[in-house]
């Protein structure tokens, strides 16, 4: 399905100018109406506050403020005009611990560099078709970190690793049958 993206504004924050220009060009080819750019997280946050874009695409590794720190500012700063804005993190690092770190910072989607046009479009579609609920708890604010699974994906009696332990402990406490013979 193709979308009418001509009325949205996207902010791209990337310190590598050729990558910034390429990402901007790809977004324009998708039909995105306005693409704002910034070369680091501090400039990016200022532009975010002044333009209030519909989507932010940010690189992880930048100085003086990286993409994770910028996302935390977007999610938690009183200056933020929209703490719920979707944020796509671009990075060359795809190790599980980094993905988890990004997720825990409030990143909406993760895009591994080098990426192709289809991968970026897929993230945009994900944001449009399956928006994630936001969660606010003591030490986290951002998109729900859990991905919904279909009921048919579930193949066991317990949803969590600890459920089996809880079930067996309850079973030990409960007398199933008494034989009085």
What is the topological layout?
Blueprint: E1 9-13, H1 17-30, E2 34-38, H2 41-51, E3 55-59, H3 67-76, E4 87-91, H4 96-105, E5 109-112, H5 117-129, E6 134-137, E7 140-143, H6 161-173
Parallel strand pairs: 1-2, 1-3, 3-4, 4-5
Antiparallel strand pairs: 6-7
Helix pairs in contact: 2-3
What does this structure look like?
- This protein is an alpha/beta fold and 181 residues long.
- The chain has one domain (9-143): Response regulator (Rossmann fold).
- The protein is 39% helix and 18% strand.
- The chain is built from six helices and seven strands, in the order βαβαβαβαβαββα.
- It has helices at residues 17-30, 41-51, 67-76, 96-105, 117-129, 161-173, and strands at residues 9-13, 34-38, 55-59, 87-91, 109-112, 134-137, 140-143.
- The strands form two sheets. The protein has a five-stranded parallel beta sheet with strand order 2-1-3-4-5, sandwiched between helices. A two-stranded antiparallel ribbon has the order 6-7.
- α3 (67-76) links the parallel β3 (55-59) and β4 (87-91).
- α2 runs parallel beside α3.
- The chain is globular.
Summarize the structure in short:
The protein is an alpha/beta fold and 181 residues long. It has six helices and seven strands. It has one domain (9-143): Rossmann fold, CATH 3.40.50.2300.
Which key phrases capture this entry?
181 residues; alpha/beta; five-stranded parallel β-sheet; 6 helices
> If strands are numbered along the chain, what order do they take across the biggest sheet?
2-1-3-4-5
In helices, the fraction of residues equals 25-40%
Can you tell me the residue ranges where pLDDT is under 50 for at least 5 consecutive residues? 173-181
Q: Would you state the CATH class?
A: Alpha Beta
Give the CA-based shape: globular
Helix/sheet category: alpha/beta
Please indicate the count of domains.
1
Compute the average pLDDT.
84
Biggest sheet details: 5 strands, parallel
Please report the number of helical segments.
Answer: 6
State the CATH topology. Rossmann fold
Instruction: Give the end-to-end Cα distance, rounded to a whole number of Å.
Output: 71 Å
């Amino acid at each position: 399905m193709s979308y009418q993206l001509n009325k949205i504004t996207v902010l791209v924050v990337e310190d590598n100018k050729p990558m910034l220009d390429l990402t901007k060009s790809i977004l324009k080819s998708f039909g995105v109406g306005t693409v704002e750019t910034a070369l680091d997280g501090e400039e990016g946050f200022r532009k975010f506050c002044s333009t209030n874009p519909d989507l932010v695409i940010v690189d992880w590794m930048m100085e003086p403020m990286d993409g994770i720190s910028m996302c935390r500012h977007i999610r938690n700063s009183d200056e933020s005009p929209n703490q719920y804005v979707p944020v796509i993190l671009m990075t060359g690092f795809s190790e599980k611990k980094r993905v988890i770190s990004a997720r825990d910072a409030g990143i909406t989607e993760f895009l591994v560099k080098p990426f192709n046009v289809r991968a970026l479009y897929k993230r945009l579609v994900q944001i449009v078709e399956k928006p994630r609920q936001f969660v606010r708890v003591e030490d986290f604010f951002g998109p729900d970190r859990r991905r919904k699974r279909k009921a048919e994906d579930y193949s066991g009696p317990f949803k969590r690793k600890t459920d089996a332990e809880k079930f067996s402990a309850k079973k030990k406490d409960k007398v199933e049958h008494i034989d009085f013979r």
